[in-house]
């Protein structure tokens, strides 16, 4: 049920612990319904099978989504050896089997190949566009197509457990754009077998982690007891890795109106001496974020103005 006070603005980040078997888009829709239909968007799609951290931006926080999406991410995933599927996860149909089951020695031996910048082919059932069409739509219609390799960054890969001879669990830290389904498939191939991702849980997206997370049921069950804004993190949470600049009231008004401000005229000029041309900063006034700006030609120029 929605919060009853209609028209009340909400601005900030909700860190949702997404349940399984729901798309990221449906999760965002459910949150919008609770928060009176406020504008919302998520920072990084989770497949329906996956659970865990889905940061959802509300109101003016949607202007910071792209900066959150570029952050590193932590996952735990389980690979099922010996079965390849159409979707590279447990929701797909089995298309190939193999009797080989790798042991711990074999797994540890090949893991270093997958740490660092590597080439990866995304799953055919993905949202990547091919000539304007989503790959998953082409795959569902039975059309033949190939996806190009792309460079992704696996920052860390740790073997957690081998609960059965058919499965192994890993913890992964990755950069933006890495597909865990592809990683599961490629690990199996490197071990001389086939495989798919049996389950996936995302533990962190940049500054958003499980310590901040809440489920849809927890929100719905407490909606009449706890004000929804209590669940939100500040807009600037997504900008933790971006340097900040404090402006005086008159400077803030100019920037909010779309005007650039020469750096040498700023009261807080000393904080900018380490920045370079085209660097991004987030700008605050009286502790309130007012814009994301760029250093250009000796001027602080607004990129996204926040209307708070």
TrEMBL record:
Catalytic residues, chain numbering: 47 (nucleophile)
Coiled coil segments of this chain: none
Top EC class of this enzyme: isomerase
EC number(s) stated in the UniProt entry for this protein: 5.4.99.25
GO biological process, alphabetically ordered: mRNA pseudouridine synthesis; tRNA pseudouridine synthesis
InterPro entries xref list: PsdUridine_synth_cat_dom_sf (IPR020103), PsdUridine_synth_N (IPR002501), tRNA_psdUridine_synth_TruB (IPR014780), TruB_C (IPR032819)
Stored NCBIfam families: TruB
Keywords for the protein's UniProt record, in alphabetical order: Isomerase, tRNA processing
Gene3D superfamilies in the cross-refs: Pseudouridine synthase
Annotated ranges, domain Pseudouridine synthase II N-terminal: 32-180
Stated family: Belongs to the pseudouridine synthase TruB family. Type 1 subfamily.
Catalytic activity: uridine(55) in tRNA = pseudouridine(55) in tRNA
Domain tRNA pseudouridylate synthase B C-terminal residue range list: 181-239
Name of the protein: tRNA pseudouridine synthase B
Role played: Responsible for synthesis of pseudouridine from uracil-55 in the psi GC loop of transfer RNAs.
Single GO MF descriptor: RNA binding
SUPFAM superfamilies, per the entry: Pseudouridine synthase
UniProt keyword annotation of Isomerase present: yes
């Amino acid at each position: 049920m929605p919060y009853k006070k209609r028209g009340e603005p909400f601005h900030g980040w909700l860190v949702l612990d997404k349940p399984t078997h729901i798309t990221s888009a449906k999760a965002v829709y459910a949150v919008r319904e609770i928060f009176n239909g406020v504008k919302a968007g998520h920072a990084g799609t989770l497949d329906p099978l996956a659970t865990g951290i889905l940061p959802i931006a509300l109101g003016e926080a949607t202007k910071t989504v792209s900066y959150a999406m570029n952050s590193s991410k932590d996952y735990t995933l389980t690979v099922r050896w010996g079965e390849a599927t159409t979707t590279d996860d447990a929701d797909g149909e089995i298309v190939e089997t193999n009797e080989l089951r790798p042991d711990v020695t074999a797994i540890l031996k090949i893991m270093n190949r997958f740490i660092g910048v590597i080439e990866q082919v995304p799953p055919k059932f993905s949202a990547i566009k091919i000539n304007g069409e989503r790959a998953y739509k082409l795959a569902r219609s039975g059309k033949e197509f190939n996806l190009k390799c792309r460079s992704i960054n696996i920052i860390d890969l740790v073997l957690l457990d081998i609960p059965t001879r058919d499965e192994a669990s890993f913890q992964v830290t990755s950069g933006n754009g890495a597909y865990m389904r592809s990683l599961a498939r490629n690990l199996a191939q490197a071990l001389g077998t086939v495989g798919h991702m049996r389950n996936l849980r995302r533990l962190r997206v940049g500054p958003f982690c499980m310590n901040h997370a809440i489920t849809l049921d927890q929100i719905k069950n407490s909606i009449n007891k706890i004000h929804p804004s209590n669940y939100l993190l500040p807009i600037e949470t997504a900008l933790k890795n971006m340097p900040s600049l404090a402006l005086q009231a008159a400077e803030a008004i100019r920037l909010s109106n779309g005007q650039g401000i020469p750096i040498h005229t700023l009261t807080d000029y000393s904080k900018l001496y380490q920045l370079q041309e085209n660097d991004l900063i987030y700008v605050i006034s009286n502790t309130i974020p007012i814009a994301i700006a760029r250093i250009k030609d000796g001027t602080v120029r607004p990129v996204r103005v926040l209307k708070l």
